[in-house]
Queue: 4 jobs
Job 1
Amino acid sequence: MYNLIDEKRVEEIIKFLNSLDIKSKRFLEIINKKDKFIINTFNEALTHSSANLEVNYEKLEFFGDAVLRLSASDFIDRTYKNMSVGNRSELRSKIVSDEWLTDLGKKILIEKVIIKGPKAMGDENSKETIIAETSEALIGAIYKCFNSIHEVNTWLDNFWEKDAELYLKAPYKFNAKSALQEWCQSKGFDLPTYKIFEISQNHGDPKRFSCEIYINGSKEAYSFGNSHKKAEKNAASILIEKIYQKEKVNYSNDF
């Protein structure tokens, strides 16, 4: 009935889609009819290539990338009518980023419904990447099933309204490394030096790596992360917040 999808999987998909709480009567009606095309499309979006080389989320992820950018552009156009094009582009880059998609996926507990093969299940390093990619594929599937960004925006606007305001209040927090570099340049300092140390060899350990930041040879901050990139970002965030609080530097853009 559902291209080798058993009834248990069908019910799992329906339950998950209902949990998204998309405020659309059309969405709820179509989902609960258990339409074959709808179920197959969402099953594809929630299947990793390690589990099925032919039917997996890769095509819908590619499609979802364009849908996400269009939907975010529509949200910004409706919400921030007087925002300049440059600032619109900057804001959109934050609310369609891989990091934002990962946070979205965690909020909706998407990992619980992703079908993975044994190799992917045991790979902690790819966990967050898979969450982000699957979330993007889910967005593509919603558009494909309804041929409209209305359902996408009805859902994502709720997240973007909060996240956009957080970013606009303190944009430096969301791009701490760039903000720190700009601050150093404004003071005539050398660019920050990041020193990474491996503390643990356990994949997924939030303190696997430590990062120390040096400015003009002086150690100014340190933090941890489950990857080099995360450790650097966490340390930069701590230092730029420290600088902001000390100097009350106005890092907010003119939105």
Note: The mean pLDDT is 89.
Job 2
Amino acid sequence: MSKQDKPNERKFRPVLHALTANPGAEMMRYAQGKDDIITLGQGEGDAPTPDFICDATAKALKDGKTFYGPVLGSHELRQSLSDYYERIYNLGIPSSRVFVTSSGSTAMHLSLAALVDKGDEVVAITPIWKNLLGAVELTQATTRQVSLDCINNEWVLDLDKLFAAINERTKIILIVTPSNPTGWTASREELRAILDFARERGIWVLSDEVYGRLVYEGIRAPSFLDVAKEDDLLLVVNSFSKSWAMTGWRLGWIVGPHEAEAKIRDVALYNKLCPPTFTQYGAIAALEEGEEFLKSQLRLWHANRDLVVERFKKMGNVQMSYPKSTFYAFFKVEGEDDCIALTKRLIDEAGVLLSPGSAFGKEATGYIRLCFAVSKERLNEALDRIEAVICKHE
């Protein structure tokens, strides 16, 4: 029977059969059911959502805030986000340019659905979270990957290489800054150069700034919004997940030009209708009361970052950059070029789940990502187990 005659092949859209594998998700499935696994493969810490956020949400539930709400989020939350940008970023972003979504991932899907179609091209700066590349695949646009370069264990962006990848089919430049998984962060000058280049050619910039507050110097990373005009072809995606331990809440937002509001609303209307109503009150509490919690988390992550760097340096056979942002160590082990095989070995022999670099782009094969946003005790235990596997030969 030929492929076109297979009944199951005809039940679903062809694009679903062509989706590339997600090695990170495959490792999670591989580890499922195994005993005593330390999970450092997902991008979240082990701190629960703080009480003040949960209490605000519980109050909203008790107050009957359980009905449909506005498609792009409540006026209260949109205004709270506008105030947040004024307070933290010193930027005047009116609430009409802020679109609340059901998760940062949904924000990315809505943005792509509004901008690209089959035949369009997205130029993505990699390494990058695989789910973003998968989201592009679902639109039937194509992706051209432009990798950061790792020079002397430092990730850098070659702007000439990026600009050379742009052609007449390019609709979007997709960038994550600060970067998951590398911790690289674009400078204000790089952001300006990219936006100027895109503006001259009528190309959209789609910036994932979910890790914008996870920096170890200052209070936030440079943002495209710092150098943008209000009518630029720019969509900035963000999320409540990382900064306030709200990964399971699935709540995010987009900042865009005024002209994008109606189009994002149209797409959202037929996607999720509206974000959950009561959780938005928890999000407001996070924005207005969450700075001390975030600072406490950053102190832990800062110490953990230094711990990982020190431990890997002592092992002697690990190469990694010194991340200035995010809570990831993106590393490679000398003599271990197959990151899938090594990740499986670490599951089987060490009981530690990490994410293989091949999940983040074609140039990231050989690397492994470790999330260090956990307790010091849990991290030390994981590093002890990892060392026992990767340093066996010594």
Note: The domain at 52-290 is CATH 3.40.640.10 (Aspartate Aminotransferase; domain 2).
Job 3
Amino acid sequence: MIMKPNVSLFFPAYNDEHTLPNIVDRSISLLNEIANEYEIIIVNDCSPDNSGKVADVIAASNSKVKVIHHAVNMGYGGALKTGVANSKYEWICMVDGDNEYDVYELKKMLAVRDYYQLIIGFRYKKLYSTKRIFISYIYNQCLRLLFKSPFRDVSTGIRVMHHSIINQINITSNSPFVGAELALKAMLRGIPVGEVGIQTFPRIFGSGSATSLKNIRLTISDVFRVRKEIFSDSYDLPSGRVRHINEEIYKKL
């Protein structure tokens, strides 16, 4: 008999007032089917629309749903970190609140949980503007070069992780780079990371902010800051080891 997982599922919400009811309804339907115990968390990242109010109405009608409100906008990475920190069950799932990814993709992602502790989706058909597809392509190519990354599409807004990862990886980014930081640091620590092909859907309401100039600048800053951290002489050294380079010996190498 296959044991059903206990699942915490959260959504970062920003300008998503129109999509949240549908996403939560589909999530409840999915989790009633595939999960043993579950909770749904909506992280309202100080959204300027009615996302927070809509989330509160949803939570008031279902005890499985709770809402966390940020008093100030903390960015995509901040919303992700809040969702992870407040998830109580063994398997933590995250899906963006704009409905470009369908929560039912989590079913096949959770199906491989016996093999991976972190599962990320890769979009094999992208229904975006040419500009956004180009930016995504350049972004992933740069990460492969800068971090020796093997991932095809490292920053999609849908992922599954085992709760134990929380205490193994220090995630610092507040920009959309946060998903890549999670996957790259997991890979470097030897945590099994899997990729599952997913579909994408057009955003019907509003517009995404991941490729705004502000988020692009923040992402670039986080990319180089995290690269400096990872490739430093002190990052994640084995216990009891330090890396001292004798300058005279180094010159002879």
Note: The helical segments are 20-34, 51-60, 75-85, 105-110, 130-147, 178-188, 213-230, 247-252.
Job 4
Amino acid sequence: MLVVWKLDRLGRSLHHLVKTVSMLSERGVGLKVLTGQGAQIDTTTAAGRLSFDIFAALAEFESELIRERTMAGLQAARARGRKGGRKFALSKSQVRMAQAAMASRDTSVSELCKELGVKPVTLYRYVDPNGNLRDYGKRVLTA
């Protein structure tokens, strides 16, 4: 038997807790909670297993509701013309300039980065060393 002071000491989330308890029960290990909201839980008894399963079902239901509400909110925002996500570090004109500069062999990457106000890692995210567009660069130009 595994004895826990409070139920939240055993898992990071209820989903994690349910997985942990099911793994314990597969090994023949019971769970007993001493204090807190789940103080009457003792999975070695039928009543304890029932109460834990009810908690797990309610948590899964709540998680599904949150997921549905989040998806509905994102869909409503898209319908209003809002887009989520981080803004691009470079504008279309900056990507074109970086593309032309990187195609030239005599371009200094550090100077180009200073001019654009980005770090080399960011520059290479948009354009490769030969001046060809990468996925980020293509996405900026099509946006």
Note: The beta strands are 2-4, 31-33.
